[in-house]
Amino acid sequence: MARASYSTKQRSSIYDFFLGNKEGCYTAKQIAQALGDQAGGATVYRTLADFTAKGLLIKYTDDNKLTYYRLKDCSAAGHFHLKCTDCGELIHMECEEMSKVALHIEKEHGFLVDSGITTLYGLCRNCRRKAEENEKNL
After folding, report:
1. pLDDT at residue 116 in the model
2. Which CATH superfamily is domain 77-138 in?
3. pLDDT tens-digit profile of 13-26?
4. Distance spanning both ends of the chain, measured CA to CA
């Protein structure tokens, strides 16, 4: 018999985490670490699965098989992911310019980009800064 859906402090803490971090994509491990003793790992995993099934969150798995979650209401055309090849950070990006790029690709090349699963790879701001500092010190 299925258990009735109910709200707990832990589930509220997880949802509040996403409300306070609307622009990001986070792994279950990152969420559990951010919440500390507010919610255990198993609770985080179960809640993420439930919130995803209910349509509150979007689940995204990158090519390294890491799974990320974000609020569904953050989804929009022109939303892409940026993945740092050095530290592994996944950045959720909504940008009008990327909407224009997606529209160009569709009009000029006949290809419809699924921006919700499109990932661009490179170096994040912090890793670029570290690399530049290392080059200066050589």
Report:
1. 67
2. Ferric-uptake regulator, C-terminal dimerisarion domain (3.30.1490.190)
3. 898 998 888 777 89
4. 65
